What does this fold into?
Amino acid sequence: MTPTLVRHHSHADTATPVDPDIRARDWAEIQERMLAPLYEAVYERLEVGTGTRLLSLGCGSGLALLMAAGRGALVTGVDTDPDRLALARARLLPDPGNGAGHPRLLAGDPSEAAPADGTPYNLLTSFTPIGCSSGDAEGLVCALRSAVPLAARGSTVVLTGWGPPERCATAPVLRVADRLSDGAPTPRTDGWRVARRDDLEEVAFRAGLKPDGSGRVACPFGYADLDSAVRGLLSTRLFDAAVRATDRAQVEKEVAKALHPHRRRDGTIWMPNVFRYLVCTT
It folds into this structure.
């Protein structure tokens, strides 16, 4: 499964923050699919199928859950973003009358996602890549400490992160977030930072997990035009601190400038990236 170049109409007012619902749709319609090769590689390696009971941490708008359910897995997703979660529900629960055995989508802390039938999960995933945003590892450790008790002993846990900056063409674009966030009036808990080689292993150690293999997956970011690229990247939340420190129009201008080296003759944007995943056991 490869990223798709998607063209969308621009918003009229970029000087003010975009409505959360619009940003969630930008994520679902533009950006989320860029990580589909990562989801597919993990599911293929782990042979996800009818025997899989999956809990997805930070399930977002549900694409990874949809792919797992398509393989026959019984899936549960938890997320703190109500707008992304609403889109996930629309994708996975089109029939309000769905009963037991159908996907479950829950808001809040992973500890709220206890299996409905009492049977523990055997696979936990976190497909929000760490190693790029300040504080992301800390948040993942907390989520894992809440979720691991819901899984059976010896279950598989998959953590994901950005690859080395030199293998990620998007890294220079993400540095815009760090530069524009300097001097922010409040302490930063988001924004870009350099990925470290052992980020995932450190999270696994702190969460009491045992690493049991890893892999790298090429996930190019491809966009139909500059507007779609800017909107998709800002939907990742990595530029939130920069928007607060300046304004959205300034951030969009700087991101568009950083994207120019990746613009092809037909106007599309193409940025090769590598993401890493770590397979652990509880």
In short: Confidence is low (pLDDT under 50) at residues 6-16, 185-192. The chain is about 35% helix and 20% strand.
